[in-house]
Amino acid sequence: MQEQYDLLVIGAGPAGLSAASAAAENGLDVILLDEQELPGGQIYRSVSGRNARKNFLSKEDRKDGMELVGRFNKSGAVYLPKTTVWDAEPGRVLCSTDGTAREIKAQCIVVATGAMERPVPFSGWTLPGVMSAGSADLLYKSAGFVPHGPVVIAGNGPLIPLVTNHLVELGVEVAGVLDTSPIQNKAVSMLHMPLALVDVPFLLKGLKMVVNMFRSRVKQYMGASDIKAEGDGQLNRVTFTHKGETKTIKAATLLVHEGMLPRTHVSRMLKLEHAWDKTQRYWYAKTDQFGRSSRDSIYVVGDGQKVHGVYAAAAKGELAGIDVARRLHVISESAAQRQIKPLKKRLYKALAPRGFVDAFFAPKKGLFDIADDVLVCRCEGVTAGDIRQAVKEGCHDVNEIKLRTRCGMGPCQGRMCGGALAEIAASALGSEVPNVGALNIRPPIRPITVRELRDFPEAQ
Amino acid sequence: MSTNTSILQDTVTIYFEDEPLTVPADISVAAAVLGPGHAGHTGKNPVKGDNRAPVCLMGVCFECMMEIDGVPNQQSCLVTVREGMKVKRQNAMREKY
Ligand SMILES: Cc1cc2nc3c(=O)[nH]c(=O)nc-3n(C[C@H](O)[C@H](O)[C@H](O)COP(=O)(O)OP(=O)(O)OC[C@H]3O[C@@H](n4cnc5c(N)ncnc54)[C@H](O)[C@@H]3O)c2cc1C
Ligand code: FES
Fold it and tell me: What is the spatial distance between Cα A101 and Cα A99, in angstroms, rounded to a whole number?
């Protein structure tokens, strides 16, 4: 099957929905693809589903999410659910819905694939029962289920207070929060406070979350380290060091969270220029204020470009949608400017607190100083020691290490280990991450069946 | 995982490891087997053979791969339950090469 559109948007979160709506409202033929069944992305996951009224703990989020989806539904853009993009180049993408592949052509592509939680390997992290903190949030929003208690929550990042409060509200036994954040973050982040004061309600909302977490009387272990998940084929307990002592907590679920980073597999596959963010320690696709990337006709917006949160994601998506309409000449320059002006204001406000938030939740130094026997590549069973050994043997680029060790060659294609691989290699070389390169990402970016390949043999 | 105790309307029945399992409609296979299915794990790592289970529920980790209606390597967090669907843990080891 072949189809042709003016604009193809990948990802139906706040950024993608806004880009698609703005472009379609301005008269473009737009198609929006997402691998989830329902639009909404991560924050508004399943917001239009039949159980959302019950499953969304934040009524404000639900209202905002419904507004975005409602606007999109009226915009005239086409929504293609359950569809994963696994190949893309300027002008076209290859994607699959329920195991059937198809090609879709479009003059412009907006990549809005969102953020993921930063995977940080530790002893026992492959045990069933160990999950990312955000997954608990997604499980509840999409299905109304909560994780088995007792639950331990560990790490440093914005989802820690959010998920802790939600689980407490839902009556789940939270046996402890292991806070791994470095103490100096609090001081450094204060330097960014003056600009953050542009958005006082945002700061108050964050403060309220933290206060509620303390009020909940969940036991918190500040400065916890050396976290280990233990059990026989299933998580049974969590051990860690706190104030110089080794402690053990019985747990059925361990939720870990070390902040968020952009999902860059699609932008990497498209060979866009990327840059390294030193504070948050992640790669991001370089764009201008309209989301235009280093390649003509390709845009990257939302948390998949830089993790700036939901309001910035929506504003950036919308700016890209308008810019596409302008470049394809369906609206005049002055009409575009009229739409752009209020959005820039919105974006300025949404970005104001980010310096503060990024510094407050900055990943700690030595986060990847993990023991040699810890698995880094979960798929292929490659340890930190294997990576260090490959470095010793002369592999100084992550792609060489990948070839030598198979780290990053499994089905997840480095999504879970790529960051750790680079950090461990850089530190072994006494160097910085940008100097060891980033994994080459080639299509297909997810395992596909023989049948899907047969339909598009040139994708091989 | 445990189920929210409110009455489950709009349900479908799937078969998890040949046992019928009635779950809310519209949810992912991963949610169904972790929640009402109390699956613990959803498969084994093909290299090491140890138990694995979903980590992210958003298509990133690939630890949720199961055999669904006879097709292996399906990311169960991205597949919605359907009446009569047959879901199995994926336990195959990879051939040595
Ligand atoms: C697990 C999790 C929970 C979060 N919860 C909250 C919260 O409660 N409150 C909050 O303020 N912020 C939350 N965030 C932060 C949140 O990501 C953003 O602020 C917001 O959702 C970003 O919007 P977005 O449109 O950029 O990306 P997203 O909302 O992440 O949307 C991206 C979409 O792209 C799709 N996609 C990705 N790759 C492909 C592909 N190859 N093919 C097809 N589709 C693809 C995904 O399925 C997804 O729907 C959460 C983040 C995560 C990771
Ligand atoms: S649970 Fe991570 S990909 Fe499905």
Answer: 6
